[in-house]
């Protein structure tokens, strides 16, 4: 039996300049520990595919909140369904993105959440692509094949095949079988299936046979490396509550600021 346990530094060395890297969106199930490992690794000219590209304020970054803009300097293209830049706390990041887009060193490819996931499914199933009605009559159809099926017009979308998938799970065994908790499952299973090389960060590792087979969502065949989040990491099982409480406090403060502005500008 193959033991897939690795440190994050060892697992990340597989990533090369120019790779297409995918990760789950910035909420539950986002591989926060692996983001920082990728930053330390230094691979550049990456294409980043992520459901939501939402930079975070420094106060949240310091607490370990997942932030895809950590590797902005290493990124040349962003494939996403949503980009959120809305507060003064992250204005420097927004300015950097605007500057790089203007000079042509950073590009965006936008699509619906559904199309993004379906294109990943196409990669996972070995399909040549999908036909989707989303975007017909808009800029989305530019340069793409269109086809009429049963009286409905569709746009052909090619599969997204990530070179590397970064995922997060609650528990793994040494063979790479994964168990998730609640909404943290999100798109992690499909990312694992679609990616050529998958790294999973987890809160706990057990021996083969200790996981209930009925609870395994991602079989180990789809996982190449398993990384146990260190105890001193901000998103470890030991420190996770501190990170969550910091995020809640920040959001409450933002809500109070917005409410004060609303009251002063009726």
How is this structure best described in words?
- This protein is an alpha/beta fold and 266 residues long.
- It has a single domain, classed as 3-Layer(aba) Sandwich (Glutaconate Coenzyme A-transferase).
- Helices cover 29% and strands 25% of the residues.
- The protein contains 7 helices and 12 strands.
- It has helices at residues 8-12, 32-41, 58-62, 91-103, 113-125, 188-194, 240-264, and strands at residues 5-6, 20-23, 46-53, 75-83, 107-110, 130-132, 146-149, 152-157, 164-173, 178-179, 197-206, 225-228.
- The strands form 2 sheets. Strands 1, 2, 3, 4, 5, 9, 10, 11 and 12 form a 9-stranded mixed sheet that branches. The chain has a 3-stranded antiparallel sheet with strand order 6-8-7.
- A hairpin with a 4-residue loop joins strand 9 (164-173) and strand 10 (178-179).
- Helix 5 (113-125) packs across helix 6.
- The model has no long low-confidence stretch (mean pLDDT 91).
Key structural traits:
Glutaconate Coenzyme A-transferase, 7 helices, 12 strands, 29% helix
Q: How much helix, percentage-wise, in residues?
A: 25-40%
Mean model confidence by pLDDT: 91
Instruction: Tell me which CATH architecture applies here.
Output: 3-Layer(aba) Sandwich
The CATH class is identified as Alpha Beta
Largest sheet: 9 strands, mixed
Please report which band the strand proportion falls in: under 5%, 5-15%, 15-25%, 25-35%, 35-45% or over 45%: 15-25%
Global morphology? globular
Overall number of domains? 1
> What fold name goes in the CATH topology slot?
Glutaconate Coenzyme A-transferase
| Low-confidence parts | none
**Alpha plus pi helix count:** 7
């Amino acid at each position: 039996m193959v033991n897939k346990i690795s440190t994050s530094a060892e697992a990340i060395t597989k990533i090369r300049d120019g790779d297409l890297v995918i990760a789950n969106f910035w909420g539950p199930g986002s591989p926060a520990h692996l983001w920082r490992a990728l930053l330390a690794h230094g691979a550049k000219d990456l294409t980043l595919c992520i459901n939501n590209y939402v930079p975070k304020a420094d106060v949240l970054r310091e607490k370990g909140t997942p932030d895809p803009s950590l590797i902005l300097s290493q990124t040349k293209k962003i494939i996403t369904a949503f980009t959120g830049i809305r507060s003064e706390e992250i204005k420097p990041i927004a300015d950097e993105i605007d500057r790089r887009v203007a000079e042509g060193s950073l590009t965006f490819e936008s699509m619906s959440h559904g199309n993004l996931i379906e294109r990943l499914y196409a990669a996972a199933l070995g399909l040549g692509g999908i036909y989707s009605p989303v975007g017909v009559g808009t800029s989305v159809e530019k340069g793409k094949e269109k086809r009429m099926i049963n009286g409905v017009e569709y746009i052909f979308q090619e599969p997204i095949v990530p070179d590397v998938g970064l995922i997060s799970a609650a528990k793994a065994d040494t063979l790479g079988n994964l168990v998730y908790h609640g909404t943290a499952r999100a798109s992690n299973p499909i990312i694992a299936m679609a990616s050529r090389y998958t790294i999973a960060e987890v809160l706990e590792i057990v021996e083969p046979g200790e996981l209930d087979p009925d609870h395994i969502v991602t079989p180990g065949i789809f996982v190449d490396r398993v990384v146990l989040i260190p105890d001193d990491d901000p998103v470890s099982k030991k420190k996770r509550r501190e990170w969550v409480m910091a995020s809640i406090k920040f959001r409450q403060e933002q809500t109070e600021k917005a409410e004060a502005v609303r009251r002063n500008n009726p």
